[in-house]
Structure formats: structure tokens, C-alpha cells
Write a structure and sequence with these properties.
With 386 residues, the protein is an all-beta fold. The protein contains one helix and 29 strands. The chain folds into three domains: 61 residues, no CATH class; 178 residues, Sandwich (Immunoglobulin-like); 137 residues, Immunoglobulin-like, CATH 2.60.40. The strands form seven sheets. Strands 8, 10, 12, 14, 15 and 17 form a six-stranded mixed sheet that branches. Strands 18, 19, 22, 23, 24 and 29 form a six-stranded antiparallel sheet that branches.
Amino acid sequence: MCASKLKRLLAFGSMALVSLIYSTSVLAVGTDAGTQIDNTATVGYKVGGVVQTPEVSPTSTFFVDQVVDFVVAEADSADTLVGAGEQDAVARFTVTNTGNAPQDFALSVADLVGGTVFSLDTIDTDALTIFVDVNDNDVYDAGTDIATFIDELSADDTAAADADNVISVFVLGDIPGTADGSVPDAANIELTATAHVAGGATVLGAAEAESGGNDDTGSVQIIFSAAVDSGATATAAGQDGYLVAAANLSADKTSTVVSDPLGQAFPLALAIPGAFVQYEVTITNTGDLPATEVQVTDAIPSDLTFETGTYNGAASDVEIVVGASAAVYCIAEIGGDSNSDGCFLNGAGDSLTVSIPVSGTYPTGLTVGINAPTDDVIVRFQASID
């Protein structure tokens, strides 16, 4: 029906009802860039009480523009504790794509001079390098996490249910050996990400650029959010600090007579020849960093003989308890740690060496640690009085 005829009908009061019915997609926050939004209008009416064929408008179409928006942040809300002279100390950042399209990101890092992130910057780091968490476990894995740019980071509202729009980035730096942790030395760093076009797997796309001008409903425009608009590029930065700390170990040793040849047990047992004495060495770390490769060496007095088979159902010679972990045991063979369980006696049998296990687990090798403040370590062994 032509428009002039419809106007005449309305003028004569012959039209009883005009209704507009819209069919459209609902645009939600974060809708993926390039999503096609279609819209039509339908006019329904009656003439003389008779329903007429509805009039349907042409379809109006536009495409959702791309918003480039992202956040770079320090991951743990505190300084990264490091030791003096530590090499490749790892600081973790996160990059979050809060835009509405997948994005590549180029990365750069700078050592800051002066100022405060968590602590006042007083020292500089050397050999800063960047690696991306390619296996998405939020832990730096040397030899695995070797990518130096972020590849195809998913959008905030992506169609793939298992996609993640957050990724960890690791900055590795060398800490000067002149900082010993006795004063609060800190080295502050800044990680910067620059948005690039998602250029395909393993390829860093070109730097993202705004489209500019008025919106063209036939194409997708590129728009930088105010948070990342750096003029010709889109960048965001986050800061972290390396804080030099140290371990602080102390040791205490006690002895208890646990049995004697008269058949008496603790607390009645007497320290007479033939009695068994239990020694207990307690190690505590009150520092801020784990102490690593910790070994306890105890010289057995000449009037004592080290006793074997005193723990673990007579199967072990030494008992070790790390923090709240269950006790672990080892055998103190003479001449060296031939079974690699962490314990041995020297060739003369008059000196015991015990390697402290990590979290109460054997075998340990030499990679061990005592964390502060909860992982106190207790080492127990027994000797008889000659």
C-alpha cells in the first residue's frame, strides 16, 4: 500500500490500529568486534476492522566496532622478594584483554630510577628479560616459557567458552650482590604492553591503529579506550619491585635419655653406660626468604656410639620433621650418601650429616629449603653411652 493512500485512510479515521514491531539483536557490553547487528521494523494495521498485510521495512545493518582496551598489572600486590646477587629473579605481571577482539601485544620493560612502587627504589637490576606464560600455569618454566610477545590473547567476551583473556608475563632480572638485605634495598621495574593486530598464530601483527573519522556502518572501526590511548598507539603499563631480603637461621639442640640398661624409660632413664640418648636439633628461619641447600652436620662425641635402626619400625636411623609435614626418615650409611636419601656418616662414623628435605620429601639431592616462619625443622637421632 502506498504512503498517500495510508495517509488518506488515517485522515478518514478508517484505520483502527497501527503497531510497530521491531526485530533486532540486543547489543551487550563486550559484544565481539565485527558482530553483525540487523534491525527491521514491521507496521501492522487494519482497514475497516480488517487486518491488512503488514508493511516491513528494509533491514538496517551495522557491525560492532572494535574497542582496544587492556590492563597491565603486578600479579601479587607486593614486592617480589629476592636474594642479594640472585640471577634471573622472576617478577610476575598479568596482561588482561578487556577489549572486544583478540589482540597481540608487544612487551617492553624498564628499570625505574627513584620513586616508590611498594618500596623506595635504591638499586638497579641488570639483564632484564621478558617471557610469556605459554602453558598458562602462572609459573615461570625455563625452556618452556620462551615467547617474548603475547600472541592472540582472547577478548573479554569471547565466543570460546574455554578461552582466557588474562595471561601472565614474567620479567627476569639480575640483582646486584652489593645489596645484602640488611637494609630495605629495592629495584622497581615497569612492564609496558602495546596493542598489535592479532596477526595469526606465532606472528606478531602490526601495531594497532585507530580508524578515525565517522563510523562507517559497512565496516569495523578501531577505537582506543581512554585508558590506553597513547596517540598513535595503544599502551598500558604496570609496575613491580624487587625487594632484597635474606634468610635468618638459628639452631637449638637438646638431649634426652630415652632408655637405660636397667630397663627404665624417659623420664626415669639414667645417663649411665649403655643408655640411649636422643638428640634433637631444631632449625628455625626468621628471615623473609627460604634458606636453601641446608645441611646439618653433628660431630658424635667420642664417648658415644651412633645407633642405627632407632626409627620407622627399626628401618631408619634419623627422623626429620619439616614444618607441619609428616616425619620422614633416612639411613646414615658410613662413608657417603650412597642411597641418596639425604643422610650419611663420615668414614670414621663419628660425624653425621643430614640434608634438610623440601616439605618433608625424600630423596632431596641438594635442592632443599626452610621457609619462614612456619617450616621449623627438627632432626632427631640416637646414640648410646659407651
